[in-house]
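Shipment paperwork, digital attachment
Item: protein structure file
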Amino acid sequence: MNVFDFAMKMELDGKAYYEKLSADTADVGLKGIFTRLAEDEQKHYETIQAIKKGMNPEMADSTVLERTKNLFEVLKGDKSVAATLNKSLNKSLEGYQYARKLEADSVTFYEDMAKQEDSPETVQLLLRIANEEKKHYNILDNLCDFTLAPQYFLEWGEFSNLKGL
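Attachment content:
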């Protein structure tokens, strides 16, 4: 399997994983985040496929980070989302952490690919994909923090009165 085939498989695997996360959540906001991440992975797949064919594809900029920021603002204000995430904490958090690791690995992979590429256009596209994967990582990192927030605040609240002992 050459590097482009590997990259395309990696993108399709990521897309399938986000589609699964989307299907597994009942929250419309989270569904939207995962659906947009899956769409970005499909876009990356198509870009890598075009590069493999020797084309210089145009790749539209991702808007997932900007759109997700708005969704996080809504989610932070919705107590039912926090309660739902807290009930399924271990399962949800493991899934989000796994996806975050996949994104971190993707960043490294695309940056390494760019270092080995001769074509300046291809280098630019690979670095753009790496930057989008960084955005995905940031989204998942924030989602992990959001999921853990009730635990952190509960722990802090329970033990804050121990300072005077």
